[in-house]
Amino acid sequence: MDFEIKFASPEKQRGACVVVGVFESRKKTDTAKVIDQTSDGYIKTILSRGDMDGKPNTTLLLHDVPGMQCKRVLLVGLGKEKEFGDKAFLTATQAVFNAFQKTGVTDAAIFLTDIPVLERDVNWKIKQTVLLAGSSDYQFDQLKSKPEERKYGLRKLILGISNRADLAAGKQALQQGQAIAKGMSLTKDLGNLAPNICTPTYLAKQAKDMAKEHKLKATVLGRKEMEKLGMGSLLSVAQGSDQPAKLIVLEYQGQAKKEKPVVLVGKGVTFDTGGISLKPSPDMDEMKYDMSGAASVLGTMLAVAEMKLPINLVVIVPATENMPSGCATKPGDVVTSMSGQTIEVLNTDAEGRLILCDALTYAERFKPKAVIDVATLTGACVIALGHVATGLISNDDKLSQELLNAGKQAADQAWQLPLWDDYQDLLKSNFADMANIGGRAAGTITAGCFLSRFTKEYRWAHLDIAGTAWKSGKEKGSTGRPVPLLSQFLIEQAEV
Ligand code: BES
Ligand code: MN
Ligand code: ZN
Known about the structure:
Elements: E1 2-7, E2 17-23, E3 27-28, H1 30-38, H2 42-48, E4 59-63, E5 72-77, H3 86-100, E6 107-110, H4 122-137, E7 156-161, H5 167-192, H6 200-214, E8 217-221, H7 223-229, H8 232-238, E9 246-253, E10 262-266, E11 268-272, H9 292-307, E12 312-322, E13 334-336, E14 342-344, H10 352-363, E15 370-375, H11 379-385, E16 390-394, H12 397-409, E17 414-416, H13 421-424, E18 434-435, H14 443-452, E19 460-464, E20 470-471, E21 477-478, H15 483-495
Parallel strand pairs: 1-7, 2-5, 2-6, 6-7, 10-12, 10-15, 11-12, 14-18, 15-19, 16-17
Antiparallel strand pairs: 2-3, 4-5, 8-9, 9-12, 13-14, 16-19, 20-21
The chain binds ligand BES, manganese (II) ion and zinc ion.
Manganese (II) ion binds next to loops.
């Protein structure tokens, strides 16, 4: 989709559709007032008929409005003016894209970005609009024999702003929004792909292709190299699978080499059967999404490269399947991690932490400014936070605050859980330095505690995206989260 930011008046817009907002109790926005004047009170008449009351999530499509140069005007309900904050803005903008899906509108000029949103500037509105447009535009039909008919044909979107001074900054917001949308789209594709296609080898190939296109450094380690490094924990997960495991590393340099990088580590279990601790069959197909952490850090890398951010960034993806087989790890097996610490594998379904711990030790060699791992780590996180917030655990208060703020700013929120020593006791093992599970209670926290034993050398945060990375049910599919959060965090890193 093409975008353009324009300092423009609605009544002069040609083209297929102009979008304007109406507040609840039919209070017109400035743009709606202009159109009302141009059309000699037409909007007022329509509103007084009661077909559009300005309630959230409502739209009304008008054709051939008198005096207007465009073919259609789409009225969109904004809710109460006093409550017009993040959620109301996002709901209204989403309603616009939903409405377009049912029409033949190919180009539109949207005048929502100039309506004041509590505590948000025009750049925020532009970025969010572009992200929602990108999400509406997203379709995954690679695996259908014939591509599906395009449900929705919007090809060009003009973002109308009312202040010429906002133009320059707005352009940067637009560019960032497009880069993040592109990253999200890659993340979604990787997540949605079938697990017989999206294998560790496939992820490695995608990373190498991205490296070529964006001048990144790519390194892919296979089993032999990982053995040499002593990654016994990661390899213990891989040993039950016929698909070779990979450790994928991408390095982006947007700053002097001596500047410390941020390192993102993404869980890349391309299919999680649970291993010998086999999962139940219902919905097991959804465990193809167990590489969503990997997909999100690769998507974020793409966004950062597109934005050409002046930061150094390293992405590490431990990638493997978790399968039961004659050579699979058994409950009770003791493995030695790259850090030298031994682990009693009491449950082979707690495999995410087993691959992450070795990747986190590997991250030390980059002398990172901060390390953030992203993983669909625990079902317990879905119980705790549902599908709204990503779980956050960190050993550094400043870092966790920065991530929480970035999530708020990006409308991709996280919520922090405690990393207290009291929880560490739950990981005691009679036979090794630690067990890989801590029982049912506080499952997300004990998983974080496990990881924290491998992250003592640097500032670290963990994002559990088990509830936020994909949607189940009728609209099953990857959400692209937390690419917006991570991208926003990195944009802010570039600014300090
Ligand atoms: N990939 C799963 C976590 C998961 C489950 C994410 C359901 C989203 C939905 C992870 O590998 C896993 O199986 N975790 C176990 C840990 C337990 C054995 C301590 C879990 O959450 O049940
Ligand atoms: Mn598992
Ligand atoms: Zn898993």
